[in-house]
Amino acid sequence: MKKYKKILLFTSMLMLVFVLTGCGTGEITADSTGIWDRYIVYYFGQAIKFLSFGGNAGVGIILFTLIVRVLLMPLMHYQTKSMRKTQDLQPKLKALQETYSSKDPETARKLQEEQQRLYSEAGVNPMSGCLPLLVQLPIMMAVWQSISRMPELTNGNFLWLELGKADPFYILPILAAIFTFISTKLTSMSQADSPGAMKIMNYMMPIMILVMGVKLASGLSLYWVISNAFQVVQTLLINNPFKIKQEREAEEQKKRDIEKALRKANMSKKKKK
């Protein structure tokens, strides 16, 4: 299952790069056709324009991003709970892997069945970690398309930026990469045993964000900066890895104290005999 998750994650990111670099460049208006252009990109752009107080499209992008992140909070909370449950299952999953350590097809099938049973009993979906990413992908693409293909946004300015063009000083791409790294790092810190794929993504995602931010419209980089900064704050408030680490250490200490007390009790019984 972990292999499928890794494949899905990497495929999604590659698909994002492909779509962002290969989508149409025609102007988006109320007369545009197609579900994507007419009903998604157009209305995303309209929402950003509506939120652009004082005619400042940068403000519109910031407010739109914050609204999207607030709407996604229940989904992120669900992901957090699922990740915590998955972490609690790790000892049992490792025990299953040791029991079914043979590489023959029949044993591998039994291992997968037992893992699925364990996930089902615990109410855990191992693919839930990919869900927020898959939901955010079309949102990112629609934001980029609306900025790049709607004249009111393409020609918009914010601080030193021309929103339809790349950041000439690379400030936003660098900030977006930094916040992406902090966000993924905090997420991995909350896991007792971070999988290899998570450790790789700690570095791959910021690099990909940086490369795309340097080449694509600065409005998208602005979206990434606000979105990932929001994610960092949300993680510290809802799934604080430092607090989780303290809780785990306290739980481990409690287990050690109980084991120590049991050993003392057994030694006392032996002495009495």
TrEMBL record:
<dbReference type="InterPro" id="IPR028055">
    <property type="entry name" value="YidC/Oxa/ALB_C"/>
</dbReference>
<keyword id="KW-0564">Palmitate</keyword>
<dbReference type="InterPro" id="IPR001708">
    <property type="entry name" value="YidC/ALB3/OXA1/COX18"/>
</dbReference>
<keyword id="KW-0653">Protein transport</keyword>
<keyword id="KW-1003">Cell membrane</keyword>
<feature type="compositionally biased region" description="Basic and acidic residues">
    <location>
        <begin position="247"/>
        <end position="262"/>
    </location>
</feature>
<dbReference type="GO" id="GO:0051205">
    <property type="term" value="P:protein insertion into membrane"/>
</dbReference>
<keyword id="KW-0812">Transmembrane</keyword>
<feature type="region of interest" description="Disordered">
    <location>
        <begin position="247"/>
        <end position="273"/>
    </location>
</feature>
<feature type="transmembrane region" description="Helical">
    <location>
        <begin position="50"/>
        <end position="75"/>
    </location>
</feature>
<dbReference type="Pfam" id="PF02096">
    <property type="entry name" value="60KD_IMP"/>
</dbReference>
<keyword id="KW-0813">Transport</keyword>
<dbReference type="GO" id="GO:0005886">
    <property type="term" value="C:plasma membrane"/>
</dbReference>
<dbReference type="InterPro" id="IPR023060">
    <property type="entry name" value="YidC/YidC1/YidC2_Firmicutes"/>
</dbReference>
<feature type="transmembrane region" description="Helical">
    <location>
        <begin position="207"/>
        <end position="226"/>
    </location>
</feature>
<dbReference type="InterPro" id="IPR047196">
    <property type="entry name" value="YidC_ALB_C"/>
</dbReference>
<feature type="transmembrane region" description="Helical">
    <location>
        <begin position="168"/>
        <end position="186"/>
    </location>
</feature>
<keyword id="KW-0143">Chaperone</keyword>
<feature type="domain" description="Membrane insertase YidC/Oxa/ALB C-terminal">
    <location>
        <begin position="58"/>
        <end position="240"/>
    </location>
</feature>
<dbReference type="GO" id="GO:0015031">
    <property type="term" value="P:protein transport"/>
</dbReference>
<comment type="similarity">
    <text>Belongs to the OXA1/ALB3/YidC family. Type 2 subfamily.</text>
</comment>
<keyword id="KW-0732">Signal</keyword>
<dbReference type="GO" id="GO:0032977">
    <property type="term" value="F:membrane insertase activity"/>
</dbReference>
<keyword id="KW-1133">Transmembrane helix</keyword>
<keyword id="KW-0472">Membrane</keyword>
<protein>
    <recommendedName>
        <fullName>Membrane protein insertase YidC</fullName>
    </recommendedName>
</protein>
<comment type="function">
    <text>Required for the insertion and/or proper folding and/or complex formation of integral membrane proteins into the membrane. Involved in integration of membrane proteins that insert both dependently and independently of the Sec translocase complex, as well as at least some lipoproteins.</text>
</comment>
<keyword id="KW-0449">Lipoprotein</keyword>
